[in-house]
Specification:
- Strand 1 and strand 2 form a beta hairpin.
- A two-stranded antiparallel sheet has the order 1-2.
- It is globular and about 45 Å long.
- The protein starts with a helix and ends with a helix.
- The chain has six helices and two strands, in the order αααααββα.
- It has one domain.
- The chain is 63% helix and 2% strand.
- Helix 2 packs parallel to helix 4.
- It has 196 residues and is mainly α.
Length: 196
């Protein structure tokens, strides 16, 4: 996570911007959107904090344990919410990945990972495979799809059906923005795992 400074700052900026957008999404009128956005905001800001280059600020040992505790609690909350299905299982995996990275960083001498090789290769490899598949799937979901029109409209003065104007969702409820947010966090997670 603490490699060269320039990519590290780009990762911090990406994660912080994603976290900020997710905070704004918490204003949605849809309760499920608000709950998901809260978990994603926590992930975004947590990833931004963990990605700060070590040359600038090397966190003390207790900070890594704090990250592990916060994301452990987030994993338990997401696991509880996953009873209903949905996107919560991905939140469980993401929070567990954050706990894993925090524990590895806390256990490593000097907390520097420019050379890698500090984590358990099997766990790191499994997480890399999962997030690679997640990023690819999220990218495919962002591809434009022909809009299907299934709504009926009202009749005009000529008796012909007029299309009913579609309700435009608020910017916080737009699924493509949520997917782009999740895609960027998946890419950031991959970048952090690669340097582990």
């Amino acid at each position: 996570m603490h490699g060269p400074a320039s990519p590290g700052w780009l990762l911090v900026a990406l994660c912080a911007a994603t976290g900020a957008y997710c905070l704004l999404r918490m204003r949605s009128t849809v309760e499920e959107q608000r709950r998901a956005a809260g978990g994603e905001a926590l992930m975004g800001f947590g990833m931004a904090a963990m990605a700060v280059p070590a040359a600038v600020a090397a966190p003390p040992h207790w900070a890594w344990l704090g990250y592990a505790a916060v994301f452990g609690a987030a994993a338990l909350r997401a696991l509880w919410a996953a009873r209903g299905g949905g996107h919560h299982l991905h939140h469980v995996v993401g929070a567990c990945a954050m706990v894993y990275m925090a524990v590895v960083m806390a256990a490593s001498p000097g907390h520097h990972h420019a050379h890698g090789g500090s984590g358990v290769p099997l766990v790191t490899g499994a997480l890399l495979l999962y997030f690679t598949a997640y990023v690819l799937l999220s990218g495919v979901r962002l591809l434009p799809v022909a809009a299907m029109t299934g709504s009926t409209g009202s009749t005009g003065s000529t008796g012909a059906m007029l299309p009913r104007p579609a309700r435009t969702p608020g910017w916080g409820d737009r699924p493509e923005l949520s997917r782009a947010c999740r895609l960027s966090m998946g890419i950031a997670m991959l970048a952090m795992l690669v340097t582990l």
